[in-house]
Design brief:
Elements lengths: L27 E5 L2 H8 L4 E8 L2 E8 L2 E7 L4 H16 E2 L4 E2 L7 E10 L9 E9 L13 H13 L8 E4 L2 H7 L5 E6 L20 H6 L2 E2 L2 E7 L2 H11 L2 E11 L4 E2 L3 H15 L1
Parallel strand pairs: 1-4, 1-7, 7-13, 8-10, 10-12
Antiparallel strand pairs: 2-3, 3-4, 5-6, 7-12, 8-9, 8-13, 11-12, 13-14
Catalytic activity: uridine + phosphate = alpha-D-ribose 1-phosphate + uracil
Keywords: Glycosyltransferase, Transferase
Protein name: Uridine phosphorylase
Length: about 280
């Protein structure tokens, strides 16, 4: 049995942070970072059956045609992803009454629709890009025992050499092949680098002195076989690594709003994000 201090429940029996009951969750989950973006996704639903929220975690569950969907905001960063992925898995695979893992496990489909900045000159603003792999520069997966395949280990080893100045071991996780085939079959694909911050950890410089002043150049010069790093953001690697560990399918769809090589930012960010939302919903 899982202790009360491990699986924390609210007075109504809902899971602690997400404020959801198991029946509130659909098997297909869309994650967005911005709480305001939840309503922009659910506005396309034919029917909304549930709206709940707590802190930055806003959830709408409803139907698009006969398809039941949940859209939930994660907030920013893999620390929040740790909360969201663990609690989504608990909702699907733990019996809250007995506090035991269910004998038959459910695999969720988890699709991130997020914003990102390109680190390659030929990835244009307005591109909708699917992440084949997520690379984590944060420490999240140091706290979990996860299994990595040979390709992930090969990329990880090369990343360790390439980013030796960071004095850390990046983790690598691939996205769901089945979701790529369903949703991203004709989209450009790349390796997404997940940073533990928005400014210096992504090579931005305002008034601070960055320890790696050439960070973007370092990122876009990485290559492993025919693979290269294409974009920077703050959640994908955590989603991929935890989803794989729990047996869920995950795909990250990135709305490219900036090009970090030439320093430009999209003049129509909301239109680019809406394009990504409509694409995912049409194919889900």
């Amino acid at each position: 049995m899982i202790n009360e201090s491990e699986l924390v429940l609210n007075a109504d029996g809902s899971v602690y942070h997400l404020n959801l009951l198991p029946e509130d969750l659909a098997n297909t989950v869309i994650t967005v970072g911005d709480p305001d973006r939840v309503a922009k996704v659910s506005a396309h639903f034919d029917r909304i059956e549930l709206k709940k929220g707590k802190r930055e975690f806003i959830t709408h569950t409803g139907y698009l045609g006969n398809k039941r969907l949940t859209v939930i905001s994660t907030g920013i960063g893999t620390d929040n992803i740790d909360i969201v992925l663990n609690e989504l898995d608990a909702l699907a695979n733990i019996d809250f009454a007995s506090r035991t893992v269910k004998s038959v496990l459910t695999s969720l489909d988890i699709i991130r629709i997020g914003t990102s900045g390109a680190v390659q000159q030929d990835v244009e603003m307005g591109t909708i890009l699917a992440s084949s792999y997520g690379i984590g520069l944060d420490a999240l997966m140091n706290y979990y025992k996860a299994a990595y395949d040979d390709e992930e280990k090969g990329i990880q080893a090369e990343l360790g050499r390439h980013f030796s100045a960071l004095n850390l071991q990046p983790y690598v996780a691939k996205g769901s092949k089945s979701l790529q085939e369903q949703i991203a079959f004709d989209l450009p694909k790349g390796i997404t680098l997940t940073a533990p911050g928005f400014y210096a950890p992504q090579g931005r410089h305002l008034r601070a002195n960055n320890s790696i002043p050439n960070f973007v150049s370092l990122v876009n010069s990485f290559q492993y076989k025919a693979l290269r790093l294409t974009n920077l953001e703050m959640e994908t690697a955590g989603i991929y690594a935890l989803a794989k560990m729990f047996g869920h399918q995950a795909l990250s769809i990135n709305a490219i709003l900036a090009n970090r090589v030439d320093g430009h930012f999209s003049s129509t960010p909301e239109q680019v994000v809406d394009k990504a939302i409509q694409l995912v919903l049409a194919r889900i």
